[in-house]
Specification:
By secondary structure, the chain is an all-alpha fold. Helices cover about 55% and strands about 0% of the residues. The protein is globular and about 35 Å long. The two termini are about 25 Å apart.
Length: about 120
């Protein structure tokens, strides 16, 4: 996903993980998913991503960049991101978190409150 603004990207996920812990980070990722998803379909589509991208400061991304984001995380090839694909993509886009992701995910899965996130939709 090459973008003219890619060099200006600042990765806040490691800081969030440090402050919130594994469970809190997963909760925030789930909130981000819900913010971007098409509420009728329950997934992030190109249209829902384009419509809601300004909420994340991504309004300047081109359609090609938005399609690239979807393609990068779309493991099942359905053209949309479910909640699991979105969360995995967010970890993959954070090089620092990739090293810590197994620990953070295991920590989050062990938390009792994690069930409310519906991570495995």
């Amino acid at each position: 996903m090459a973008s003219k603004d890619q060099n200006n990207f600042q990765d806040f996920l490691p800081l969030m993980a440090e402050k919130l812990g594994g469970d809190g980070l997963i909760g925030e990722l789930c909130n981000g998913f819900r913010l971007l998803m098409d509420s009728d379909k329950g997934v992030i589509t190109f249209d829902s991503l384009k419509q809601n991208s300004a909420l994340l400061g991504l309004q300047d991304l081109s359609d090609d960049d938005l399609y690239g984001m979807l393609k990068e995380g779309d493991f099942d090839g359905d053209g949309a991101l479910n909640q699991m694909e979105f969360c995995v993509l967010m970890f993959r886009l954070s090089p620092e978190l990739m090293e810590q992701s197994q620990f953070l995910l295991e920590d989050a899965l062990q938390q009792e409150g994690f069930q409310d996130c519906n991570f495995f939709l």
